[in-house]
Specification:
This protein has helices at about 20-30, 40-50, 65-75, 80-90, 135-145, and strands spanning about 5-10, 10-15, 30-35, 35-40, 55-60, 60, 95-100, 105-110, 120-130, 150-155, 165-170. It is α+β, with helices and mostly antiparallel strands. A six-stranded mixed sheet has the order 3-4-2-1-5-6, with helices on one face. A five-stranded mixed sheet has the order 7-8-9-10-11. The model has no long low-confidence stretch (mean pLDDT about 90).
C-alpha cells in the first residue's frame, strides 16, 4: 500500500491531492476534505505514521516518527496521554475527531456511524492516572457533555499507556 505524502501545516497536516489521501478520508474518515487535499489532526497524522500509511515532509525531507512526535508534543500539551486514548479508540474501530469547539479533547462516533451521518455519541477527556481533578472541573466536563447531548467518557491512561474508560451520565433523582 502506498504511503500518502503530506506536509506539516501549522497545527495540522495537509495531504497531497491523491486518490490514496481521499481513500483515507472516504473509507476511514481520517481528516477533513479541503478541495482535493485532506487535512489531518496531529493525532490522526501520528496514527497513520505508526501504521506506515503516511509520510510527512518538511523542507523536502521526510520526518521520522520521533521527529514528528517531538513537534506534536511541542504543539499539544499532554500529547502522549491524549494520543494513547485516540489510538486505543481508533484501534477498537471508532471514528475519533477533535472536539475543541465542544470544549473537549475528542468526539467519538458510535461504530458504523460516520461524521455527517449522525452526531458523535461521546465527548472524551483523556487524563493520566496520576492527575487529579477538582469537583468543579469534573462538573464542568459533565455539563459540556450534557449541553452537547453527548455522553461523557473519561479515558484514564496509566504509565504503560493502557486506557480505562468511565462513562459518566446525568441522573435525575
Amino acid at each position: 500500500m502506498l504511503k500518502v505524502q503530506a506536509k506539516l501545516y501549522g497545527g495540522n497536516v495537509l495531504s497531497e491531492a491523491s486518490n490514496e489521501a481521499r481513500e483515507l478520508y472516504n473509507k476511514n474518515r481520517f481528516g477533513a476534505l479541503k478541495k482535493d487535499n485532506v487535512i489531518l489532526s496531529l493525532f490522526e497524522a501520528f496514527y497513520l505514521i505508526e501504521k506506515d500509511r503516511l509520510a510527512i515532509k518538511e523542507n523536502n525531507k521526510e520526518l521520522s516518527e520521533d521527529s514528528f512526535l517531538k513537534k506534536a508534543k511541542r504543539q499539544i500539551k499532554n500529547f502522549q496521554v491524549k494520543y494513547a486514548v485516540f489510538k486505543d479508540l481508533r484501534d477498537r474501530g471508532y471514528i475519533v475527531k477533535t472536539a475543541l469547539k465542544f470544549g473537549a479533547d475528542f468526539r467519538v462516533y458510535d461504530k458504523g456511524i460516520q461524521p455527517g451521518q449522525d452526531h458523535a455519541k461521546w465527548i472524551v477527556f483523556p487524563v493520566h492516572e496520576s492527575e487529579t481533578m477538582t469537583w468543579h472541573e469534573f462538573s464542568a466536563k459533565n455539563r459540556v457533555a450534557h449541553s452537547t447531548k453527548k455522553k461523557l467518557l473519561i479515558g484514564i491512561v496509566d504509565d504503560e499507556c493502557d486506557v480505562t474508560y468511565y462513562i459518566i451520565d446525568w441522573k435525575r433523582p
